[in-house]
Amino acid sequence: MSDEELAKDLGLLSALTIGIGTMIGAGIFVLPGVAASTAGPVVVISFVIGGLIAMVNALSVSELGTAMPKAGGGYYYVNRALGPLFGSIAGLGDWMGLAFASAFYSIGFGQYLATLIPMPGVLFLTDIQVGALVAGAVFVGVNYIGAKETGGVQTVIVTILLAILTLFAVQGWLSFDLATLLGDGGAAPFGYGAILPGTALVFVSFLGYAKIATVAEELKNPGRNLPLAIIGSVVIVTVLYAILVSIMLGVVPWADLSQSAPLTQATQVAFPGGLAGVAVTIVTLGALLATASSANASILASARINFAMGRDRIVTNWLNEIHPSYATPYRSILVTGAMIVVFIALLGQDIEVLAKAASVLHLVVYALMNAALIVFRETDPDYDPAFRVPLYPITPILGMILSLGLLAFVGQRELLLSAAFVVAALVWYFAYARRRADRQGLLGRHILNRGEELPFPVVDAAATVAPNGSGADTDVPTTMVALSNPRTEHSLVALAAALAKHDDGRLLATHVIQVPDQTSLAAAADRRERISETSEELLADARADAEELGVPVETRTILSHQGIGEVFDAARAHDVDRLIMGHQGTRLAGSRAEGALDELIHDLPCDVLVLDERGFDPSEILLPTAGGHSSDLSAEVARALQETADANVSVLHVADDLGKGQEFLENWVAEHGLDEVDLLVETGDVETAIGAEAAGRTLVIVGATERGLLSRIVGGSLNLSILDELDTTVLLAERPHSRSIRERLFG
């Protein structure tokens, strides 16, 4: 049985963009017109106050998240601290709140879609509702089949949105008029008492930061990155809202601002003449992207919450059944999707109801989370968060007061609607969950023990396996082999074993199971046999091969939302000396493109060797070299295979002058300690020479070129272009080295 670990897929940037991407969709593209008609120009203050309330709650969420980086977010904290009664309210409230929010985002999508494509009304549904239903069905379908949302994709989406909003902000500022902002009625035509009702309406714009906590289990360094991402996303979007809403109201009078597509209208006014049409199209496409991303992220988060509730038996675990083909919690997604469709159909003509209902349910959860924080602090001696809220207990108490206080301004209809869901959650607890939930909350245990210290800790440790968690000697040189295909397993292990023998080192054989973003890693771990039936067999074969070759081996299955990126992360986490992986022809280019952003930011974690699928036979090796950076690694590999596999090595250099080429090659071979090798010097085309000399060889070792990321992905490189033309197995070798931004891009 191999060791298993849950990958830490998300860095600070990815976590930050999850929060920003979700919040931008509502606050900028959907609500400004509706909110301005409610409060007038002072709606800008409504957004700022909403940001301040969110910030107080974000501090508490950050502390709880660093103490318990677990799937489920707010529900998990409330259930552990206050027990399954309040956990039912928090979990079901969060779930329903996300369904309301997804319906709200889908309506926003429909509003902007209607400005691009005429949509027919059907029965009692408006054209916007029809567009929203189509969008909602697509979002549910995307999550059903497991398309990605977090990480790199979300980062790209947010980058595009920020670029579009920056373009509008610059041009909008040039068209800004203070008289237009204030209008005839001044800053507060409805009185300053309209500010807080405006805040209650726009608070749905600040729900995205809490979604970061639902993926806390998958964050790298959550003690640092979780609070930075949560607090940073709230600060960034609050500033964006204040600036952009002010500019919108300074371009279009608040009374005239569209309630369906406000940013499109403001863009049309701000941009001159012929540019207006292009700018409006770009902004509209950005709005569609933003609202789609927000809706998609809300559906994704709901699946994480359902898993956490199912794990605690608050809801039936039937919801968390994993799809046999897509590996997604398809039942949970379909049930959530059905609720979204009902909300769009019944409430979609009044977007305020959807916005406020989502806000109310989340505000109730935030109040309970603040209470949970106090309970943890006061009763659990093992509670040890990496981040602590300032001014405790004032901060969580203030969070409860502000969250519950804002409920007074949401309106009677929305309050009654949301109260009905809270009552339904209580009924559900007493009718279903009470008899099944087997975990009592910390508060209940403390009361039963009359304030005495609890006999066991309540806060769970993060569900991860520490790097090198098996206790292996980390001073021994480690060669990591990343396995994915049973057909190439033996060749990769044989290569890794030959190199490990040369170093008197050990092997770390890993298999990354890529899990859809809709399925939490903890859920995947519980149902690993449904996600991948080949992992155990693959690693068992690797153990048998390594033992037969006389090399100590450790095996690990890694559950991850990434593909190739997680291989590099695992190499860093386990501090390996070299990484060996496989590829199929030019498919390597596509695999590297998957981690393009990562390559721009980071260097390779260690020496990397990539073996193609044609097998491994080191008896006759061809080693072309031009003296590049990675040729040092090629020489090391060839020398190791000489000693451990009795390989015959021929070294090839292509030069314009045969004499100078011979001199270069003799010096290079001597510098790299290669003995008893054949020296080959050729003139002419490099690829032609390699192709000719590879004939009759069993292995060609090629060092990576110095060409940069863009040229490698777009145009290919020498290494990649010859792979499919050779009949000989090719081993690519790349050694990490520091590169400037220019070198990363262009080589």
From TrEMBL:
Predominant cellular place of this UniProt entry's protein: membrane
SUPFAM superfamilies membership: Adenine nucleotide alpha hydrolases-like
Membrane topology summary: Multi-pass membrane protein
Location relative to the cell: Cell membrane
Keyword Cell inner membrane: no
Limits of the UspA domain: 480-611
Protein's UniProt keywords contain Transferase: no
Bilayer-spanning residue ranges: 12-36, 42-61, 82-108, 128-146, 153-174, 194-216, 228-255, 275-307, 328-347, 353-377, 389-409, 415-432
InterPro entries reported in the protein's UniProt record: AA/rel_permease1, APC_superfamily, UspA
Keywords annotated in UniProt: Cell membrane, Membrane, Plasmid, Transmembrane, Transmembrane helix
The name this protein goes by in its record: Amino acid permease
Organism lineage string: Archaea, Methanobacteriati, Methanobacteriota, Stenosarchaea group, Halobacteria
